[in-house]
Specification:
The protein is of the alpha/beta class and about 260 residues long. It has helices at about 1-10, 15-30, 55-70, 85-90, 105-115, 155-165, 185-190, 205-225, 230-235, 245-250, and strands at about 75-80, 100-105, 120-125, 140-145, 165-180, 195-200, 255-260.
């Protein structure tokens, strides 16, 4: 219910919604700062045609691999906007980029990342996705995974992506939104200076990952979350029966992934 309220509030009061999301993530980062093995905050991706796993970390990593496989990353300067607990940035090192910067609006989560990851070419910065604290043409690749639905003005974010991407750079983008509104998203990206090269509906893969990871999530919630808060956290993490799971399952909400480019 809490996550549903925050998502719906974006349409009515973007600034308030953004502030509530920020406070929520600050609380989560403080409350679970000692859980250094919890590195991912996405719903995951299951290969519906191949090997199936119920390992939560692997399912979360699969979503990154699905997205990162859309572009050549070796030797590139990369930025992840909405890096969360930093697991995605650490995973990207395997693709041999030149540098990786993780940005998040939660000061506490950035503090967690700086303490947890010490690799020399990995850097973390606190900042606002709608006003990126970087110079024009700073990055070859920008990644945004399951984060933009929290933003107050996604148009501003896409303009910032265009500004900070180098000419010929790529934007790797995955998130969810209502199916009835989804056709507006490619047009919005184009209006902000990005070309949509490929787009894919990966809702079935995300749904299966939600189902496979449910026992792990429910056990962890029971272990570390006080009983009065378990129901809203169940919705936040997307266990079967939650509001967001039901919307994916009914087709009301679509989970998509895109490869976008900035022209030369």
């Amino acid at each position: 219910m809490v996550a549903k309220l925050f998502r719906n509030l974006v349409d009515f009061s973007p600034k308030l919604s953004l502030r509530l999301w920020q406070l929520f993530y600050e609380f989560i980062a403080r409350r679970f700062k000692k859980l250094t093995n919890w590195k991912y905050m996405n719903y995951g991706f299951a290969d519906t045609q191949g090997k199936v796993t119920d390992d939560f970390n692997l399912l979360s990593e699969n979503l990154y691999h699905h997205l990162l496989g859309k572009a050549q990353l070796a030797g590139k300067n990369m930025l992840e906007v909405g890096c969360g607990r930093g697991g995605g940035c650490e995973l990207m090192l395997a693709y041999q980029p030149k540098t990786i910067t993780g940005l998040d609006f939660s000061e506490n989560v950035i503090s967690f990342c700086k303490q947890t990851y010490q690799q020399p070419n990995l850097n973390f910065v606190a900042g606002n996705a709608e006003s990126l604290p970087f110079d024009d043409n700073s990055f070859d690749i920008i990644v945004n995974l399951e984060s933009s639905h929290c933003y107050g003005n996604r148009g501003n974010f896409f303009k910032e992506v265009t500004r900070t991407l180098k000419p010929g750079g790529f934007f790797l983008y995955a998130d969810f939104m209502g199916r009835v509104h989804y056709p507006k998203r490619p047009a919005q990206l184009t209006e902000c200076g990005l070309q949509v090269i490929t787009e894919q509906d990966i809702t079935p893969n995300v749904l299966q990952a939600m189902e496979l990871s449910a026992p792990y999530k429910e056990a962890m919630i029971k272990k570390i979350v006080l009983k009065p808060f378990r129901k809203p956290i169940n919705d936040f993490v997307g266990v079967p029966g939650s509001n967001i799971y039901n919307k994916f399952n009914s087709g009301e909400t679509i989970y998509f992934s895109m490869l976008c480019g900035k022209g030369e």
